[in-house]
What we know:
Elements: H1 14-17, E1 22-24, E2 29-35, H2 39-56, E3 61-65, E4 68-73, H3 83-99
Antiparallel strand pairs: 1-2, 2-4, 3-4
Amino acid sequence: MPNLPKLLPENMDFQGTLPAWRVSAETKELSQEFVFANFKSAFEFMTLSAQYAEEIDHHPDWSNSWNKVSVRLTTHSAHGLTELDLAMALAMDRFALQVQ
């Protein structure tokens, strides 16, 4: 069995680290809706995010509707939030700023 990514501590300061993200203790996931000026910007964000997801082999659950991208992050294999979810969320925040 491959090594599972390390679970994040339950007392982690998500609000301080990821202020725009919602954290659900019940579903053990991070979520955010990114809103862009138009579809092209939303798609550019998704492209950057998809390339990074491939690099770290960790993929978001997401959907797109014109200028909005709804994202949920969790590590299904670890049954919770891991360092991969944190890395993906931080990267997505950076990508969103790049395409605004």
